[in-house]
Amino acid sequence: MIRFSFFQRQILLFFGLFFVLNQCTLELERPQVSVVSGVIDLSSWNFEKYGPVALQGDWIFRWKEFVEDPEINPEKNRLMPVPKAWTRIQEPHGENYPGIGIATYFLKVILPKDLSSTNLAILAETSEAAYEVWVDGVKIGAQGIPGKTLDTSTPEWNVKILPFQIQKKEFQIRIPISNFYHARGGLTARLILGNEDQIIRLREKRMTVDVFLLGFLIAMALYHFTLYFLRKKDAALLYFGVLCFVFCFREISTEQNLIKVIFPGVPYLVHMRIVYLSFYLIPPITSAFLRAYFRRSLKKKFIILSFLSLRFSL
């Protein structure tokens, strides 16, 4: 009973801190705005009061083309929700878009008249595809290198701040995008617009939370490994330590992508392998931990089935 209560405290502490840290990133209640038919109207948005805004909703979408102007052959334009994989959307003839392909996204942004700063920025979150971001014909950044073929395209899984200056109250965002490496294509990343200082603070805040959580997970893993070496008969200690260790890899390879800060040159395919391997390792290790913890309560068949999830990550 002493061992059980000890583990209960550890688990409650782990998930309690995880909940608190995630709550720290929640934003205050504010008006809901979204992209409608390729336009987002921020004329009544107060960046100083409400902070950055996510550019999510229905963007103008041009399939199988890199075009600079959506008014060229406008009959080819479609609406595509962002962030969302185009593989989940049906083409006009009824079938879903394939994962492999190229496209161009367009968005018209209407800014408030009393905007205090002309120094804006976009926080580009992780996406499986390669894409560039252009504002009124000026390239402000990219995630990898989009291309029309596999050989000319290089994907990148990262989080970036894309700063730019704008003097007008209306501007157009154009995103040429290609996907030749992942099962799902499309602009699955959230793009968040705000004053440059706000975007930098938002990124730093999220990074701080991730670093704190990573440090906590490492401490928990080392603590339970130490306890296991002192009491080797208690396998639950080992499994819980391994679980924390796997969560460490999950933490550095997703969200704010600390792995790109620690190892800037990590290849895309290696990065994605870590992302999926860390995900599929969680069920079998959790099952092994629960079986060691409750011993007779869990059946071996459940453990074997959970280990089969490893196959999907290899």
Structure description:
Helix content is 38%, strand content 21%. The protein has 314 residues and is α+β, with helices and mostly antiparallel strands. Strands 1, 3, 4, 5, 7, 8 and 10 form a 7-stranded mixed β-sheet that branches. A 4-stranded antiparallel β-sheet has the order 2-11-6-9, covered by helices on one side. Helix 1 (2-23) runs antiparallel to helix 3 and helix 4 runs antiparallel to helix 6 (268-294). The model is unreliable at 1-5 (pLDDT under 50).
Q: Which helices and strands occur, and which strands form pairs?
A:
Elements: H1 2-23, E1 39-41, H2 47-50, E2 53-54, E3 57-63, E4 78-82, E5 101-110, E6 119-124, E7 130-135, E8 138-143, E9 160-165, E10 170-179, E11 191-195, H3 196-230, H4 235-253, H5 258-262, H6 268-294, H7 300-307
Parallel strand pairs: 1-5
Antiparallel strand pairs: 2-11, 3-4, 3-5, 5-10, 6-9, 6-11, 7-8, 7-10
Helix pairs in contact: 1-3, 3-4, 4-6, 6-7
| Number of contiguous helices | 7
Count the beta strands. 11
CATH class of the largest domain: Mainly Beta
Overall average residue pLDDT: 86
Main structural class: alpha+beta
**CATH architecture term of the largest domain:** Sandwich
State Rg.
Answer: 23 Å
Shape: globular
Order of helices and strands: HEHEEEEEEEEEEHHHHH
Largest sheet: 7 strands, mixed
Question: What's the name of the CATH homologous superfamily of the largest domain?
Answer: Galactose-binding domain-like
Number of domains: 2
The span between the termini is 39 Å
Query: Stretches where pLDDT falls below 50 for ≥5 residues?
Result: 1-5
Which percent band covers the strand fraction?
Answer: 15-25%
Find the CATH topology of the largest domain: Jelly Rolls
Helix content: 25-40%
